[in-house]
Write a structure and sequence with these properties.
Elements lengths: L1 H44 L7 H11 L18 H30 L3 H10 L2 H10 L12 H28 L3
Helix pairs in contact: 1-3, 1-6, 2-3, 3-4, 3-6, 4-6
């Protein structure tokens, strides 16, 4: 009888840890992504462009058909619901990178967030657009086919550093609600 009770309690603890992990990843990732979006909105006020999420959705829509490389995503055939697809993907990607942070630094980080791991993941996440998205959308590796590659790279790095700060800030916010 005691063994069964112990096994059930261990199983509950593992389930609770998994639920806690998923909730933290969702809240931290969405919070960090929201901060990144506020940053992009601020930049737009100064005439500095950011990613058009309809193009992200278009690119993802074409992935389903087996095409991930485009000469120009702007010239590719539009995909039904591409803007919504792009925005949902944007937040899911943010949540995925929050999960990477939580896996890499574990529950210790989640209970006492520190800046450096969040910045490592945030700035490291720029590899996704540099090596996957931008080449796939016809912009070349690390935006080398854009009119001003150095400016595009700086913008991407800065935006992903802001995402890293967002991971840190959202980690603290989630910690304060004591999941």
């Amino acid at each position: 009888m005691e063994f069964w009770t112990l096994w059930v309690k261990v199983d509950e603890v593992i389930l609770n840890e998994k639920i806690e992990f998923v909730l933290r990843a969702i809240l931290i990732g969405a919070g960090a992504t929201l901060l990144m979006d506020v940053w992009a909105l601020l930049l737009r006020q100064f005439g500095i462009p950011s990613l058009n999420f309809a193009f992200l959705g278009r690119w993802i829509g074409h992935l389903r058909q087996g095409q991930w490389m485009h000469r120009s995503i702007a010239g590719a055939t539009p995909v039904r619901g591409e803007r919504l697809i792009g925005w949902v993907a944007h937040y899911l990607i943010g949540i995925a990178f929050a999960a990477v942070l939580l896996v890499g630094w574990g529950p210790v980080w989640a209970r006492q967030p520190t800046l450096i791991p969040a910045l490592i993941v945030g700035i490291g996440s720029v590899a996704a657009p540099f090596l996957l998205m931008q080449p796939g959308m016809g912009l070349g590796i690390a935006a080398r086919r854009t009119p001003n590659p150095a400016a595009a790279r700086r913008r991407s790095l800065t935006t992903h550093a802001i995402f890293g700060l967002g991971l840190y800030a959202a980690g603290w916010a989630v910690r304060l609600i004591e999941l």
